[in-house]
Write a structure and sequence with these properties.
- 73% of the residues lie in helices and 6% in strands.
- It is mainly alpha-helical.
- It has one domain.
- The longest helix is centred in the middle third of the chain and has 63 residues.
- Bound molecules: zinc ion.
- Zinc ion (ZN) binds next to loops.
- The site of zinc ion has 8 residues, from loops.
Length: 123
């Protein structure tokens, strides 16, 4: 049950109550005109509550649509991040390529290594 539906239903119930109350008053006060007044007020009460209910339903659908857009955007951002992860991995791997050759044994060593990975001599 949404808030909009609750608003509409309570509006109809309120309208029926108003009609009943005005009918009772019309009988008690012996004023038949009050029945018409009751229907008139009840009509506007129901109309007002139906418009309110419709507005709430509309706002609710806008809200859920915004939520969906946010969710989709977040999903795209996450997907982009996932796609970028291997790229940064490749970049790190590129930094690990052989940049210096050991004078002692001729083994190619990575830029980050200060000592030869084969013989252990300093760069
Ligand atoms: Zn070496």
């Amino acid at each position: 049950m949404t808030l909009g539906k609750i608003c509409k239903i309570s509006g109809i119930i309120l309208g029926i109550f108003e009609v009943v109350i005005f009918c009772v008053e019309a009988i008690l006060l012996e004023q038949p005109i009050l029945v018409f007044v009751g229907f008139f007020i009840a009509y506007f009460t129901i109309l007002f509550m139906l418009i309110c209910g419709e507005a709430i339903t509309l706002l609710d659908s806008i809200h859920s649509r915004i939520y969906m857009i946010n969710y989709t955007t977040q999903e795209i951002v996450d997907k982009t991040k996932d796609e970028q992860t291997p790229v940064s991995y490749v970049n790190t791997a590129n930094q690990q390529k052989v940049t210096w050759v050991c004078k002692e044994c001729g083994t190619g060593n990575y830029q980050n290594n200060l000592y030869c990975r084969n013989c252990g001599k300093y760069k």
